[in-house]
Amino acid sequence: MSYVLAIAGSPSHPSRTYSLLEEASKQLESAAIETRILSVRDLPAEVLAHGQYDSPALEGPKALLEKAAGIIIATPIYKASYTGVLKAFLDLLPQKALVGKIVLPIATGGTIAHLLSIEYALKPVLSELGARHFISTVYAVDKQIQRQADGTLQLEEELEERLDQSLQEFISAIQSTASTSRVLVYAS
């Protein structure tokens, strides 16, 4: 079974960004892809703020990342960039932590004006960590995501279609990588 790590870069909870990760996780699980959500805000603040690369608190997240075939990184956009808490976490990862990983960036923001923040702020850092296989990004304006009184999530139709399309592309890439890996293992 393939495994995906979904990284929530929002400093608050609940958040629209985290809700999109939950929605993505449901779709991945229905495609028989095990998914784990890591909320960076739950890591000890002193580890992130003081750059404690060797902290035991990072052993679990690093192991989850290493095991994953795919990574979803979701962040709200503040001041035309991803969150500081996500940056602090990414800075603590090994230099080539994303080599060989399929990456799906997701971002939320108050306005469409920050759409390119993923391309100009987030992707360069992910590339520096070794990411080369990016799936189409998903950017959502806050008003496109509504939490209903019963706790369910209501996505605007256009956003739902874009998220579904990117997730299908992500699932196909993960499954393709998994079958290639199996072929290589059997060929050895």
Radius of gyration: 16 Å
Q: Give the terminus-to-terminus CA distance.
A: 20 Å
Roughly how much helix do the residues carry, as a percent range? 40-55%
The total count of helices amounts to 6
Q: Which architecture would the CATH scheme give at its second level? A: 3-Layer(aba) Sandwich
Strand content: 15-25%
Q: Residue-averaged pLDDT, rounded?
A: 91
Annotated CATH topology: Rossmann fold
CATH superfamily: Flavodoxin domain
What is the CATH top level name?
A: Alpha Beta
- H/E topology pattern: EHEHHEHEHEEEEH
Quick tags:
Rossmann fold, 188 residues, 43% helix, alpha/beta, two-stranded antiparallel ribbon
Describe the structure.
This protein is an alpha/beta fold. It has a single domain (3-187), classed as Rossmann fold, CATH 3.40.50. 43% of the residues lie in helices and 21% in strands. The protein has six helices and eight strands. The chain has helices at 16-30, 45-49, 59-67, 84-91, 117-128, 157-187; strands at 3-8, 34-39, 70-76, 102-109, 133-134, 138-141, 145-147, 153-155. A hairpin with a 5-residue loop joins strand 7 (145-147) and strand 8. It is globular. The two termini are 20 Å apart.
Give the topology.
Blueprint: E1 3-8, H1 16-30, E2 34-39, H2 45-49, H3 59-67, E3 70-76, H4 84-91, E4 102-109, H5 117-128, E5 133-134, E6 138-141, E7 145-147, E8 153-155, H6 157-187
Parallel strand pairs: 1-2, 1-3, 3-4, 4-5, 4-6
Antiparallel strand pairs: 7-8
